[in-house]
């Protein structure tokens, strides 16, 4: 067995497997730029190493795999007009693409909280394992942001309008609903994860999964498909809210109330991004769009205000600008999708000169 890595990402190889452990448990293993680079370098190295046949990623501590990116750093960067977040996203999104294209089994142990950037380093993998403790979400609209890390690609491909519901409301889902939405592949009780991970050092992935996979406890989304598919098929966020409010189901009305607490701009941009993602097709094309949208969000007042309210001051009372859905114009939304010379992305390895102005 060999071991290497810095404090925030622990790397080791044992037998036929390479292990990545996100190691910031006090911060729910939130990703930093340096962590993204360490992960990418490990994947590139192990891709060429014939001794490593499987890669396993997990999170340290008991609370979850990863709660996302370093939100406080993004807040400071957006507040001061910096470029560090754009640099971070450039490399993070390239890592997401590299995970999706990885030629060896990439096993993501999606135990506990898996949100935002945590979805990016797990749900694009070839083998995605959830547990009874999994809470998977893309909650960006609540901080004035838009689902990224390939999240709009994943959610656009969910059955019916389930992905639209999850993207706009930011609702966390458990194991069964993550499986239903295509965000995960297998359910394994959390108590079995240590054995599963250990056995991957010696046995092929399929054989290990066969020993540990079970049927997930029932979820909730399958029974809500009728109202979700009807309401979220509407062409605008305003119409979605109106349809939800007109339903008799309490869950639909709760969804409407939730939407009205989110950033109106982020909601409209998210809906547009999802609909466009369906047409773009490939993850790489969607990541290009997401990079454009994310960089535009840096100059949006809602990102700074949303993170302030939810993470910095924690008063949970953001003042959105504009404050009403009706006041967000088509021009406001279009700005997020407008190409900016020098700030375009083409996914590739982090040391690749593939990011070009188009």
TrEMBL record:
Cellular component GO terms, alphabetical: cytosol
Chain ranges of the Enoyl-CoA hydratase/isomerase domain: 18-337
Catalysed transformations (reactions): 3-hydroxy-2-methylpropanoyl-CoA + H2O = 3-hydroxy-2-methylpropanoate + CoA + H(+)
Enzyme class: hydrolase
Pfam families hit by this protein: ECH_2
Gene Ontology terms describing biological process: L-valine catabolic process
The protein's Enzyme Commission number: 3.1.2.4
SUPFAM superfamilies registered for this protein in UniProt: ClpP/crotonase (SSF52096)
GO molecular-function terms, A-Z: 3-hydroxyisobutyryl-CoA hydrolase activity
Keyword Hydrolase assigned: yes
Keywords from the UniProt entry: Hydrolase
NCBIfam families according to UniProt: PRK05617.1
Protein name: 3-hydroxyisobutyryl-CoA hydrolase
Organism this protein belongs to: Streptomyces caatingaensis
Lineage: Bacteria, Bacillati, Actinomycetota, Actinomycetes, Kitasatosporales
